[in-house]
Design brief:
This protein has about 200 residues and is of the alpha+beta class. The protein contains 10 helices and 4 strands.
């Protein structure tokens, strides 16, 4: 059975636009997923990129156009200028890490819940009330917002180092562990699907 390491940021619009396609592909090909949230604002400069706010105006303008096009194509609700962006990714990332370790709920739904909160619901995913609500809706104990802080913080730091070492430089980023094949971007999910089918 193939295993996918999924690196992403909880405020990434491109990860939001991926929706639940990764999970559907994994089910179809009986692949498992490890969710690895990372601090994108540290990842970008460490891997030759720039934080969105520091990019050239032409790149910023094109990014907005592409996001609008993709959201329309995928028929997903999308706020191009969300009320809470950028926002501290650490609290929501800790919650995902703690929930994945604790089990009992749907991690994919949890990740999508945080992304949807930013890009479609204008909610602040650094707020404890929002984190608890998203945890509960995905079938997890809302108390993980507090219980998982220590383990979440440690693993969050390791995720960044592992991402850099693995060649990750953006979000979403998928790596098939058995083959080392890498796929960057929600628009590469069909390539990931084809690769899994070939195994």
């Amino acid at each position: 059975m193939a295993h996918i390491d999924y690196y992403f940021g909880t405020i990434s619009p491109w990860s939001y636009l991926a929706g639940d396609r990764l999970e559907r592909i994994a089910r179809e090909h009986r692949a498992s997923i490890t969710y690895r949230p990372v601090d994108l604002m540290q990842l970008f400069p460490r891997t030759g990129g720039q934080k969105p706010a520091e990019r050239h105006e032409s790149r910023k303008e094109y990014r907005l156009q592409e996001l609008t096009r993709w959201a329309a194509s995928l028929k997903l609700p999308f706020n191009l200028h969300p009320a809470h962006f950028p926002v501290n990714m650490a609290p929501s990332s800790y919650a995902i890490i703690a929930a994945q370790e604790a089990g009992g709920g749907n991690v994919g739904a949890l990740v999508q819940g945080f992304l949807r909160a930013v890009w479609a619901e204008d909610r602040d995913i650094s707020d404890d009330t929002v984190i608890r609500d998203v945890l509960g809706r995905a079938g997890f104990d809302p108390a993980l917002a507090d219980k998982g802080l220590f383990v979440g913080a440690e693993q969050y730091g390791r995720n960044l180092e592992e991402a850099v070492a693995a060649g990750v430089f953006g979000s979403p980023f998928y790596i098939v562990r058995e083959t080392g094949q890498k796929f960057w971007g929600q628009d590469r999910l069909e390539f990931l699907k084809g690769h899994l089918a070939s195994l």
